[in-house]
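tool_call: predict_structure(chain=1)
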Amino acid sequence: MLAEETDFDPDEVYLLYDSVGWYGYTRDLYVLCRSLEGSHLVVTARDPDGLLLGLARTISDGSTICYVQDLLVHPEHQRQGIGRVLTQHLIGRYSHCRSFLLSTDDESTPDGAASHAFYRSMGLVPHHEQGLAALGLPVRRD
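tool_result:
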């Protein structure tokens, strides 16, 4: 079951982010919760008992651009279509936007090839194939 949520249980959010090894998020639970609260949209996937299985969140102006900041599914529930449903929801919700973007691991990394194949299957195309480039400051690993 998908829902657009605005209230978050810090413990369940921590467990989900920790389950996928996103320790940069779990080091400071207060910051993690603030990042969710500051998102344009947070969509969750839950089982019938309300257990949090996956989450996607966006940063957007609501009109021209949507950036998918996080898309994660608990490892015990991956490869069951949850990530696909979350992504489809976001694509539909932001279909009016000119740009729909996300960042993911490079294809050369251990998880990169699978994530690129998944996103390509959803219709997303790498920037360089569109004559574009994405630039940013180095990612902080602390």
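agent: Residues 2-125 form a domain with the Aminopeptidase fold (CATH 3.40.630.30). Proceeding to next step.
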